[in-house]
Amino acid sequence: MNDQPTVSPKRQGLSRVWHAFFYSIEGLRAGWGEPAFRQEAILAVLVLPGAWYLGQSWAETVLLIGVVVAVLVVELLNTGIEAAIDRVGPEWHAQSKRAKDTASAAVLLSLLLCGGVWLSALWRWFFA
Fold first, then answer.
1. C-beta of residue 37 within 8 angstroms of C-beta of residue 79
2. What rounded mean pLDDT belongs to the chain?
3. 82 vs 128: which has the higher pLDDT
4. What does the pLDDT read at residue 2?
5. pLDDT tens per residue across span 88-122
6. Using CA atoms in the order 29, 33, 34, 40, what is the torsion angle rounded to 10 degrees?
7. What digits encode the pLDDT tens for the residues 40-59?
8. How far apart are CA 64 and CA 86, in angstroms?
9. What per-residue string of b and e applies to 74-85 under the rule 16 or more CB within 10 Å gives b?
10. Residue 75 annotated among the catalytic residues of the structure
11. Is the separation of the CB atoms in 82 and 103 below 8 Å?
């Protein structure tokens, strides 16, 4: 097995966009392998139709959709950070723990933001 790193060819124009699209699809597949991302994605599919129902304007609808998508984006970034840290080595290191903990905190904050936006929309829908 060759341990030498491979270098991607330099692409330009539509070829670069085309290949970037498929790299992104591979990233989504990798994210799907993570239980947290899978759970959040399934929940997103279930709640996103409600955004069109709860949103009283296009801005509110976009906000409800946007915070759900933000959770998925932050979870993918968290997964990427964890993979990069794990790639460095399995031994415990304070900086590795710090990177993983702060990435996890970002996921928590995105979930709290999402929950707050959706709860306020639901509150207004049922009690206003």
1. yes
2. 93
3. 82
4. 57
5. 888 899 999 999 999 999 999 999 999 999 999 99
6. 60
7. 999 999 999 999 999 999 99
8. 34
9. bbbebbebbeeb
10. yes
11. yes
Torsion of CA 41, 44, 46, 50, to 10 degrees: -170
Note the pTM of the prediction, 2 decimals. Answer: 0.87
Closest Cα to residue 77, out of 69, 48, 21?
69
Contacts of 52 (CB under 8 A, 6+ apart): 61
Q: Which residue is it, tokens 């993918």?
A: 76
Please name which of 71, 95, 73 lies closest in space to residue 84, comparing C-alpha atoms. 95
More confident residue, 98 or 9: 98
Q: Return the amino acid letter for 34.
A: E
DSSP 5: P
Name the token pair of 7. Answer: 């270098």
Q: Considering the candidates 34, 60, 75, 91, report the single residue annotated as catalytic.
A: 75
Give the list of residues 6+ apart from residue 79 with CB closer than 8 angstroms, or none: 30, 31, 34, 37
